[in-house]
Specification:
By secondary structure, this protein is mostly helical. The chain has 5 helices and 2 strands. The protein has a two-stranded antiparallel sheet. Strand 1 and strand 2 form a beta hairpin. The longest helix is centred in the last third of the chain and has 30 residues. The termini are far apart.
Length: 96
Amino acid sequence: MAALDLFGRRWILRVLWELRDGPLGFRPLQHRCDAMSSSVLQQRLTELQEALLVDRDAAGAYQLTALGREVFDELRGLVGWADRWADELDRVARDR
């Protein structure tokens, strides 16, 4: 339940998604997250650091930890399902 609570918080999944390809500084990460407010991004990064899913590299950029990469790998199944769901919704809409 704790994981569902964490992942259900606004922007948490987006931050994990944007960090999937490697470390990002605060401003580039904020830009990739549709310029969310600095205070919200800082709060979400703090929550993800406390959850051991994100840490900072030697240059101060944010990156996924081993646990963060693992959870992202687990979420790939959900991404695949969401793609199939979107296709089905499109198919039903076309058939109407």
